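TEACHING EXERCISE
Course module: macromolecular assemblies
Task: Read the component lines below, then compare them to the predicted structure of the full complex.
Student: A.B.
Group: 4
Components provided:
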Amino acid sequence: MSAPADTPGRLPGEFDLIARYFAPIAKSHPGALGLTDDAAFLDLPPGHQMVVTTDAMVAGVHFLADDPPDLIARKLLRVNVSDLAAKAAVPVGCLLALALPRGTTAAWLEAFAQGLSADCAEFAIPLVGGDTTATDGPLTLALTALGSVEAGHAPLRSGAKPGDRVFVSGTIGDGALGLEVAKGGLGDLAAPLREHLLGRYRLPEPKVALRPVLRAFAHSAIDVSDGLLADLGHICEASELTATVQAAMVPMSDAVQIAVARDPDLLSRVLSGGDDYEIVFTADPADSDRIMDASIKVGVPVTGIGFIGRKGEGAGPRVTVGDLAALNTVLRVTGYRHF
Amino acid sequence: MSAPADTPGRLPGEFDLIARYFAPIAKSHPGALGLTDDAAFLDLPPGHQMVVTTDAMVAGVHFLADDPPDLIARKLLRVNVSDLAAKAAVPVGCLLALALPRGTTAAWLEAFAQGLSADCAEFAIPLVGGDTTATDGPLTLALTALGSVEAGHAPLRSGAKPGDRVFVSGTIGDGALGLEVAKGGLGDLAAPLREHLLGRYRLPEPKVALRPVLRAFAHSAIDVSDGLLADLGHICEASELTATVQAAMVPMSDAVQIAVARDPDLLSRVLSGGDDYEIVFTADPADSDRIMDASIKVGVPVTGIGFIGRKGEGAGPRVTVGDLAALNTVLRVTGYRHF
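Instructor-supplied answer key:
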């Protein structure tokens, strides 16, 4: 395993690449074996289940090839941590599969690894394994995240009950309008507002802190990645129920409120766009006050935005926007489709 | 979630694609939730650890874009199952991240899913999650496999002891010479021999049946993916020891023996080439007879090919071929490098 010449900018071989850039991120977890074995070993507390999820990202589809490498790494980790958060799981570890375009520089890889390292530390989810390979195509990444949850205590998509109140964390629409800004749109907004939106799009904040609230109260939950209405639709689909939300109740940041005030057509984008990585959940309305108190206590405010109804008639929509009939056209929107 | 028009050959949207092709593979495992949630739930028996591993494959690097799709799926699953097998783990589940080139046909995807389904059944490793996306580049796949092992009973790379005997399962070199055949080489071999080699290269047989033998006797183990000498070198590296193997003892199939008899230069390829997916392990030589008996009982014969020695002097090689001094040049070979 002789190292290749350490020419500046030249990528080392696979073993050295792992040792140099990724093994340091794994050193906090003994079961990762310093990434020197073919597998890693993870423990579960008694009575717990392993929660597993995977998300892939491709340059040109999910991000631009010249996006800052540390942000690419951090977003990849965060979208997976967000899935764990929606299941009220405690992060346990993650594995990274990385197909690197030929010509990837050491500087790029170092920045990528630094971003990954920072967020693995922030979310207490050690890197425990992975695979790196070359590709003739665009940078392609897949991250698998593992978490633990007390058996039977994870809120599923399928757990909603008729009469449940629908809650959402944080604010909605920042991700979708941030994507607009990234594409050069919303130029009439003040720079700080554009920065806010762009930041939310580029670097989601998975709501892991909401875990005790979800664990105690949520009947069903999902993170907002496809879009608020689409993701609530996923809950309705899995629970075989319907939902009605009030657009006026949907929490929006100052930037989103100002953008929508200038261009009301953006409201549909706010409700149906993706990439917010907030959590939508349903719970007994009788628990509303306790949910509000508990969510403020963990620093993740939530807002009641609607209710779960009984199964609809025939081919009717799963989710209805109660106070804005025109918006019901967005019910056909089921989030971003890759194909 | 309205389905797009079902034009023959046209790829359905992501949700329909998952429902149509992948959900049926997941239905055997209740924790997969029919692939309708963002995460899956896996149980571990008390006193067990989760073993996790991931491998990525890229068209043009690991296989040809026009290889049969069912074989691509099966090889991807098998190389991961092989990693679990080397850790004496029982398969628990797997997750698949799939970046599909635009223009991928429904027929391709159906064949891919059929191959995956067949092997998930054969190796009792249900698909429990995944992610599909489009790519402008080559087909790129990453599979994460999870298994369970009694805590502390997995043979690691780092567990070899001085004086251990080195064993290998099955036969060595079929993978490397199969790759030669796939490239159009070894044309002077009889067709059935070429078929044998090609089959071993295209569709490895992970040695999951060896689990009780490894669990009972192995101090260290690794599967042969980078090549016999390179992978034994990984054990030596992690264990901070050396090894000597006898080329004459290395088990070879009829096809490999005939090929090497015709072209002795191929011997170095046999010992240093990859893709055999056999298992190399080390154990107390006093257990040799019991290891032979137990391995025959599970239908996976093993052969003693050498011994582990003490840590070498200075920069000496980790692995020495005792009976063929000329071959020691291959010690610089550390398996296929992607970069």
